[in-house]
Amino acid sequence: MEMEKNMEMEMEMEIEVIREASAMRSWSRKHRRAGRNIAFVPTMGFLHEGHLSLIHHAKAYADLIVVSIYVNPGQFSPSEDLSTYPSDFPGDLLKLSRSGIVDAVFCPSNLYDYQHRHHAAEPSAIARPPNDGTAGISCLDDDDDDDGCGHETWIRVGRLEQGLCGKSRPVFFRGVATIVAKLFNIVEPDVAVFGKKDYQQWRIISRMVRDLDFGVKIIGSEIIREADGLAMSSRNVHLSPEERVKALSISKSLFQTKSEAQGGQINCKELKSSVVGKITEAGGRIDYVEIVEQESLKPVEKIESPVVMCIAAWFGKVRLIDNMEIVL
Description:
Layout: H1 2-14, E1 16-18, H2 21-33, E2 38-43, H3 49-58, E3 64-69, H4 89-99, E4 104-106, H5 165-168, H6 172-187, E5 191-195, H7 199-211, E6 217-221, H8 241-262, H9 268-281, E7 285-293, E8 307-315, E9 318-326
Helix pairs in contact: 1-4, 6-7, 8-9
């Protein structure tokens, strides 16, 4: 036990851990004045090889790398899994330390607590309304709090947030866009890297940066998969062994669809129907299966230009997403 504590202390000495927004901004400005550019990888922690691949990808674009670890309450509705989102901060620091390329970790307590911004608090202290299934609000919204000090400013990326995950998660993308904008304003990076597993998120952030003239270059990094094909996700840990095997129907369906499209089957209705059948037969519950144009995310009837097939499905209590770009 003592050895583990010493290891954690050594890790914090090797990688600078920054907890206050003002300190993070000062760190970035100091290095930028010295002529160094900064790449940023935002995460919610519980890091896996997919996250680490983003960090290694980022190293090609900058002198310094900042990784944030922050579970954003603004993107969860009260009925979702904020309280059970996996966390392992000491383990995350160890992985980042072993990467040998991370210069700073930004780990704020609560980026929405404006009254106590300068007072440290544990992440568990974030207010979480009852899990009552309310739609259209996030875990930050509190109708009983009318003191005028709460968070009221949200970024919406119009049409791009409406389909795919936006249908079943109505507050998700406003929460994502808003927290990413806040992090960009705090970290002030030159480059930010996002994984293409969250394809809609990547496109939304890219559009937000374009439309609001952020001085940040957005890089999309390819999906990292387990050896059996399952897309890496922090939520995979909640799958039972049986559910995990069944969940392979998602990636298998994607690879098969790509093969069929390259073989001449371009009718999207038939391709989607086949995928729905395979995942349902494996015990999954479909949220959506869509084939959309890669940049606009508009649904298409035939594959006649670059598209991406996007899937969201439930296995047990775990909602998984995956996708595959198809270019004929």
